[in-house]
């Protein structure tokens, strides 16, 4: 299945010209229509800006209808049209005077479309985007693609970015459309890209002092009664470090907290859902003000929690952690470390009892320091540190946890992940 | 030191408007001039396109002079002006009809400028870029920034991307300029970003069948007599995998091959050096054709080899590999695995002789399989696999190699890195 995303500016001035794609010529007024024909694209998604809205409009629906009319009159309707909350001049602005809703809107809706359509080939045509659009739309769609790839364990999804030689009137072409980037993305590459923004030196401060403030304010404003106790910057960084070092057991044991946190973030982004757009707009003196603050880090968090939630789906069995290491390690080094540790545990199989028992005890250590892991060993052994890991037989498999139901070492693990 | 990069389109139409940066207002015709004042920028670098060239020109120097005149007449000269080989309409095209020189030019020259100025704060203003410029310039400058950060071990360099609310005539503003991205980049983040393109599933094929063909053709065309035997796609992937898994010893032992390969790639990109621009241009029937094929992967390779060359500078001593693990590991997991292995080696210090001796022998294994590593163990132990690693005392330190001068195991290591 092939999908093409295209951010566009104002189509009013798009003239019929000749585009050349892969040696064939197409006469049309939009480059994405030429690409769609040339590559037999199954679904085309066009992101137009809400600022194309007719100046007479005084509400969102009027704007939406006028943009739809303006675009379809010029470009037809052989595509899905999504209208994004863009900033434009001083006429369309965010109340915080930042430019974040466009990115968040495109990330959130593209991810939904990718999940619904499960493409193997994804294209972006940046030709008709203006100003910040090619950059922000591309980055937002990339983030959605990475999330989709990890969630679907789809190695080798093709992401190609097309651009036409700039069309200058009255020259009718032919203008060559060619890719500026093209790659088959792997799960590892996608995973590392999603983790990357969290590795900045001040990212944790930003998440804590900026992003979570917005999140808590939004919850308060909507008087939503959700448990936020476990959804905070510290928890986010436990997840980041667990994913980075392949400590999958932590994710498995925390899956309900991950899902709870994801739900909170998802509720904020859901306001940007195209089918149910809930961002309030103020129409004042010919200006349109988006009455919402959503930093783009909310999309980063959403993506992180989506993949953490997906990876954490498994059970706390050695065989399933083996699978996770094969599929979701950030490097071969991390993968082989975990596989080595699992082999070591399997060698002790006969000594593993039916009820949760500290790994150190199984190894014959007399007075182990329960719940007192050595940080370096915890990280260097894929999370199977002997003073915090409990093992027991479960059928043919070996089960593993950071608690035996009595003594809970997960707090100690978190200390070292922080 | 603060530096600001700004890609621009045609400045002819830039009118004086009011820009607002961090609450202060500036009356000027270029957003980067407002940012420069507001943030006390030390150096501003403007990337204009060669396609601004006067239509009467018939050679590069005439173009360059006419672009310089056009830009400085409108925007003054309080900045360094670099003229980039952009594609524009069907008037300025590459002979392969692709769009790669702009990216390569901005990567190569930005890296040079970063190295000369050693900034702690780096800004990009995408406001005035048109079409593909904001996307490609941002990506190219990002790659240069990552390379600069690893080469200078500069944790926490600030990269901020600014954009103005789009200026629409005759509205005089004030237009808010704000950042759309901002982060303090760490060495680890930079390293992972540089490795990322090499993790795609078909990247090795592309490097082998597309990129190295261009490289070899370029060498032939210039009848350069360089030894290319060790500079090939296989070697590139040994480097990628060694960096990813923290097998720093491999890089140290291969430093001369790395530098040789870097030199080959650098020679190609050097044609794009602003001070010594050597890409041939054909002026034909009012068209300008760039007579050069340089895929953007050449910049990826250049960046990879630059950081590999930097990291490989050390000596093959345990203490230096310890340092490398602290500074250049792709995850804490990789770092702690290496530190653990080094501790294990140090514990054997008394048994380590003065001449290179196989690690397996030192560990008391009777008939070790010399040069026959187990892949998983090689990767999972930071490269210190007992059947390929030779150790000997050197002063207070311990030296390490994959050869004892007689038996050379580096080929076996490469088999597992491939």
From TrEMBL, chains A, B:
Pfam families to which the protein is assigned, alphabetical: Csx1_CARF (PF22230), Csx1_HEPN (PF09455)
Q: Looking at the record's lineage, which domain of life comes first?
A: Archaea
Q: Which InterPro entries match?
A: CRISPR-assoc_Csx1_C, CRISPR-assoc_prot_DxTHG_CS, CRISPR_assoc_ribonuclease, CRISPR_Csx1, Csx1-like_HEPN, Csx1_CARF
Which residues does the UniProt record annotate as the domain CRISPR system endoribonuclease Csx1 CARF? Answer: 3-166
Output the CDD domains linked to this UniProt entry. Csx1_III-U (cd09728)
Which residue range or ranges hold the CRISPR system endoribonuclease Csx1-like HEPN domain? Answer: 337-403
Q: Which NCBIfam families match?
A: cas_MJ1666, CRISPR_DxTHG
Record protein name field: TIGR01897 family CRISPR-associated protein
Annotated source species: Acidianus ambivalens (Desulfurolobus ambivalens)
